[in-house]
Each structure stands twice: as structure tokens, then as C-alpha cells.
Amino acid sequence: MRTDDAGRAAFHRLNRRDFIRTSAAGLGAAAVLAGSGRTASAATSPYPDWIARSDKPAKRGGSMARASAWDPPLIDPRLTQSVGLYQFVTLTSSRLVRYVFSDEASGPTDLTLKGDLAESWQASPDHRVWTFKLRQGVKWHNMAPVNGREFVAADVKYCFEQYAKEGVQSFNFQEIEAIETPDKYTVRLHLNTPNVLLAQNLAEPIAVLFAREVLEKDGDLKKTLIGTGPYMLKEHTRKVRIVLQRHPDYFEKNAPHVDEYTILSTPDAATRLAAFRTGQADFIWVASPSEVETVRKTNPNAVVQAYHNTLAPFGLTLAQDRAPFNDVRVRRAISMAIDRQKMVDTVFEGHGIPGWGVPYIYYTDKQPTLAQLGPWFQYKPAEAKKLLAEAGHPNGFPTTLFYYEYFPQMTSEVQLVQQDLKKNLNIDVKITKLDYTTYYGRYVESKWDGMCWGFQSGHGIGLDERTYQFLHSRSPKNFFRVNDPMIDELCTKLRQTPDPAQQRALTKKLVEREFDQAYRLWMPYDNGFLVFQPHMRNASAPALRRSDGYGASTLARTWLDK
Amino acid sequence: MRKYVLRRLLLAIPVLLLSSLIVFGLMRVMPGDALIALMGESGNIGERELAHVRQQLHLDLPYYQQYAIWLWQLVSLRPGDSIFTGEAITVSLAKSIPVTLELTVLALVLGLVIAVPIGVLSATRQDTASDYVGRVVAVSGLSLPDFWLATLVITFAALWFHWIPPIGYTSFWDSPWRNLQQFLLPAAVLGFRLSAATMRMTRSTVLEVLREDYVRTAWAKGLGGRIVVYKHALKNALIPVVTIVGGQIGVLLAGAVVVESIFALPGMGRLTVEAILYRDYPVVQTNVMLVATTLVTLNLLVDLSYAWLDPRIRYR
Fold first, then answer.
1. A-proximal residues of B, 131-160, CB under 8 Å
2. In principle, which of A402, B32, B69, B221 could form an S-S bond with A432, CB 3.0–4.6 Å?
3. How far is B285 from B57, CA to CA, in rounded Å?
4. Of B194, B210, B148, B185, which Cα lies nearest the Cα of B265?
5. Does ipTM exceed 0.90?
6. CB–CB contact B43 A240 (8 Å)
7. pLDDT tens across A407-447, in order?
8. A151-192: per-residue pLDDT in tens?
9. How far is CA A88 from the centre of its chain?
10. Is A396 helix (H, G, I), strand (E, B) or coil?
11. Rounded-to-integer distance, Cα A512 and Cα A494, Å
């Protein structure tokens, strides 16, 4: 799994010395601030969390590049949700609807939907039938075997049926019972059950539309990717580069502005940083404030966006379908024995969030503070010990924890959890660090005992994806093994509630239930920064949609002021 | 000589068979599954679908049958396709071998160009300042890990010169200048280690040879220092150097794994590392066998070169 909002374009290589130094400083600071009630999210950054669109008229031309850690193993959107593919596929391929681009958004948390290939859409009163009116005259890329023919309703029907039939997106599309195409420009989707959030689901990057001719000819989409998006895939050489070329017949006449966008496969973080410093890359993701300062020493004119994280993608996942973690007291005790504030201060240099799973923007206006996450997320070792004793484990117990190091700070977090649990609850955690494939296979198989440093996929933007798809007991993406009829009911009810205010209330209730039962013990996560060369315009990353990751489609509006 | 070569070639067969068994076994013993990594990014992959793909890739057969199929594929030079990308392994290798070959050859050339003259200089000026400098450089080359040196080189190139090699491999035939810009720094990093080992060996063997009777005779005949050292001493001193260079090819290939990653070169090192991480059995197995065959061949060539360097050596 790769993450986006979550994601890691360039992880800070925090070495042991840095960590000890930062830990010492952080612990000192934490001690000083302990009485001041400072919360993790209160840490401020000197950089704005939003870069408004440029008022100047956009210039056409030029080429843009980025050094990327991600190299897509394959380019078939049916077979992967990897950010390696989605860092560019929404630029080559359109969806029916999309979220606002950064030049249209009022701020980072603006999640307004806009028509992409659909001009308008409407749901039946029971939200089981959705009708989409398509744009007319949209052309596929002028590449064999599609050769720039017109995009029509039958293409949507074909794609959605293929998604439902096989591959990793099938769960999302299997709720579509039948698809009608009454005319060339109308698609009608009939759902198994009501879903008021369907339009959001179809705006997810994983819902891109591909050309049927390619799949019919090759049997898969591993070699050729043809869409209707602003860019055409000119070159994909694995481990070297992805080159996107402007689509001259793109349906938005003035976009895209940049002629060519090259993504350079660069596995090493130091090289990516060097690429930005020397101008080979136009923007870069860095994790920590100290990294930003390092970059600004050589590139003082660089424009920095303090990214606005709305969720934490990683957390302590417990085998809660079996003892001892099926006892809510054990889960709560573990949660209370972990000092999240210390992690934010030391591991993430204060620029992090304490951790929650459902994006807060769906139920509250401001980023929650640690105190607002409820009693079980506060660091209270004495109460934790008492609770564990009540659960029948006064002397702790031995357990295991496996993880894959997605980024260096994760190892520090895992070790801090191990220390806290030993010190506060006498729980002996045996840590196993695994390679990605072993970790991934074991994690998604969901048959392991003990604990795991688990994740939720990074691509999800919509509320349905972040609730029903990740929390419902029947969902295959419910990796945290949540099995609570109340959660199931709330998730389902959310899909039947069109009123936004009621949706927020329901989401809040759902999140409170999740926190109360300590189902998913989210762990602190950094906010990170996007750093742009000074000539970049309209490339700001909105919440949940980083422009170097799953939110790449916004680059269709980027232009270069040089 | 012919008999010797034939015997060595025959002996290579069990070595390669053993290598194939080891790599095949190791890949099967390692935990994790390429198919789950490939298909289960969201966890919603059905058992039926997995079983179907396993069958297609012969992963449902007993190990001995999988081994036999793979061996036959290797012998018939059709090693199959990558599980992860679906690309034919021959195609992947055709793309990555030239990169690694260019990198290692350049590193070898750079390493030798630096190492041999400095080694000779160190030996002929034993215990002088230039000898000490040469020795310090050699010890540094042996001590500094490739990843560290490569990271420093790229970081300081960016800081001091505001320049790093252009990222994104370009073939020599498409643009020789750009290609050289991309390869010189990584080759220098890779060659540094080789030069260190070679420099030390050259120094010690030249020192030894310079004390031989025939060298003393050469001096006594009144030959010039350059002729004595380069014509009489150096050639005889090169046998151990050639041996060590032959052995260092393996080290160069291992170092290429790291250097290719840092300098973003799409060579065999990156191909193999990625294949290992994703448990892409056919790719790992084929790459390892290719490297094993290369090393066996190089060792044979090194042995054969002894006779050219020292006519007293005869093969039986």
C-alpha cells in the first residue's frame, strides 16, 4: 500500500543521532509544555497551508518535472491502487466527476464536486438510480487503436462493468446492479442499495475511465493507457521516466497549460532533494520543518506549502477478533499507555497530528486536538494500568507487533510504543520488521495474532470510502477487523442520508463510537510540506489530494511563470 | 590448454546447478507472495482469482516440477515473464544489462586508471609523503561504504556546483554527452572501491617484485628506472592484481545495486532488488543465474590471462 495524503514522496532520513538529538530536545520541550496544555495540532508552521491561485493570466508552454520515489509496476488501473500509477493516471484519464482543482478551490478543505466527463448528474429520490449527462464531443487520445474517436455512454458502461468484474476496484463497483445507456450521452446507474455518496465515489482517482479497445485488443491495460484526460502518455519506461504530453484535443479548450510533464523515477531521497535543488525537479515533498529549512538554504525563493493533513493513515492494529484484544478494556488501556504527544514532538518535530482515521473535515471545522479525541487517547499510564488489571492482566502479557518501515520515523514510533507498553503496562512487545511483500501479504490476509502497524489505503477522498469501505464489517478493506453492528448501521445510514448537516452529525457519532471502543488506535503522523520552484503556479495541494500523488489531476491547471 | 579450458567449463556446470538450486530454494523459503503484493493492493482479491493466476504461472505445481520447468526455460533461453510487470524477462534484461555493463566497465576503467599508477608510485617511493597519501586514499576507499559515498557525492555536487547528473537514463547511442554525464559520477564512486583494493595490491606486489634478483640485474645493467619498473617489474607484478580485479567484478556488481538506486540508473541491480522485494521469482532467479554465469566465466578468463602475463605458467 502506498499513501498519499498520507503519502511519502520523500522521507526524511532521520538517523540515530538526529533522532536522539531531536528526542532530547522534544522531551525537554514536552516537559516544559506539559503544564501549558499545548496540543499536537497546536504546533504552528511559518508557511501557509494554502497557496491561492495566481491572478495573472496563465502562460502556455514549457515543461515540468518531478523526481518521484514511486515507479508504477503496471499501468492497469483495474489491478492496482498504488500511488505509483495514480501520481499521473488522473492526468491521462478522466472520471465522470471530480473534486475542484486547486485554482477553483476556496481552500484546502474545499471538497466541492465538479463535472469531469459528466456535465450534470442527478439521483432518484431513493438514491438508487443515478443519471449522468455526458459532455458531447469529448475525444479519446489520438493513439492507436482508439485513434481519437468520440467518448460515449457505452464507454462508461464498459469500464464500470470491467472494474466490477475483476481487480482491486471490484468491491467499489459491485454495488452497481445494472447500467443503462438510453442515448449516446446519458448513463444511468442502478444500485443494489441506496447510496447518496455515489458521486463522491466516482470522483475517486480509482474511478478513471479507460479505452475499451485497448483492453479488448491486449487483454489487459499493462502496456497502453489511453484516456480522455489533459495529458497523453508519451513514454513509460520503468525505473526511468514517465512522460506526459499535452492532449491537444482535451475538452477544456484552455487546459492544460504545460506542454510536457516528466516524472523521473528516483528511488533515493537524497537524489530527489538534489534534483529539486539543482532545478531538475519543479516540486518536492518533504516531511519535516528541518528539511524545509535545509532546502531553503540553497533555494531561498522556493515556495512552501505546509500540507494540511486531515487523517493519519497508520495506526496500531490489534487482532481484536480474539483475546486479549477483543476486550475493550485492553484496547483502551493500550491506547492510554501510549504518549502520542511525545511522538509528535520528537519524531515529527512538532509538525504532526496525533492521529485519527476519518478525515475530520467531514464532522468538524477545525483539526481536532489530542484532548478532543476522547478519554482513551489521553496519556494516562496509571489509569491504563488499572484498566488492564480489571481486564484480568495485572502483570501485562507478551505479544507481537510486525511492521514495514514505510518511512524512517515509523521505526522510532514503533519503538516508542514498545517502550511505553513495557513501562506502563508490562506488556512485552516483540517487534518484527518485515519487508514490504511479507508485511503486506500477512496484513491483508488478516489471520495474524497480536498487533501490527496497520494502514488504511491512501487513495480514498470521499466520506463513503473512509467510512463504509474501511469500517463496515463486510468490507474487504476493513483491515482493522472492526465488527460492530452500531458502526455498520451508522456507515449504512450515512449512505442513505442526503442532508449534509445530518451527514456530519452521523459521521461525528461514528467517529465517537470508534474512539470510544478504541477500535483503531491511530498513531501520530506528520503533516509534511510541498516545496515548489518559484515559477510554479496553481499547483497547491488540497486536503486529501496531494498534487504529487492521488491528487495529481489538479496539475492540469498548473502553469509555469517563466 | 584446450583440455584445461574444457575441464573448467565442465566444472562450471555443477557450480551453476548448485547456484540455481540455492536461489530457487531461497526464493521459496522466503515469506511473502508476489501475487498478493501484485493483486491485493486493497485486499479484495478472491481466492479463485489467485488460484487461477498461480496455475498460469505454474506456482501450484510441486517444487521439483517448478524447478525443472524453470531450468528448462533457462537452458532454452526463454526465462519467461515477470510475475509483477508481465514483461518478458529477456526484454527487461535487454534494457538493464547495457546500463550495468556500462557502469561496471567505466568503473573498472576509472578504477584501474587511478589504481595502477598510484600503486606503482607508492611502491617506488615507499614511505614518502606520496606513498602515505596513496595508502590513506586506498584505506578510505576500502572503508567508505558505496551508499554513503554516493549520497555525499550527489549532495555536495548539488550544494557546491548546483549540478547533479541528469536524472532519467539516456542511452549512449541517443546522446553520448548526456550519457557520459549520467555515468561518470556513479562510475567514479563505484570505481573508487575497486581502485583502493587494486592500489594496495599493486603497491605490495610491485614492492615484492622490485626486490627480485632479475630486477636487481636490470638495475645493474644500467637500465632506466621507467624501463625497469614498467617493462620488467610491473608485468610480473600484475598476476595478483589481475586476480584481485577479477574477484572485484562481483563486488562491483554488488555495489552497482546501491549506486544505481542513488543515481537513478535502471540497471540490473535495481531490477534485482525490486524483484526480490516483490518476490518476483522468475526475475530474481534468472538475474542471479546470469550473474553466477558471468562470474564463473570471468574467473576462467582471469585464470587464462595468467599464461599471457607470465609465460612460465602452463595449463595442463
1. 151, 154-155, 157-159
2. A402
3. 14
4. B185
5. no
6. no
7. 888 999 999 999 999 999 999 999 999 877 778 878 887 88
8. 999 999 999 999 999 877 888 899 999 999 999 999 999 999
9. 15
10. coil
11. 15
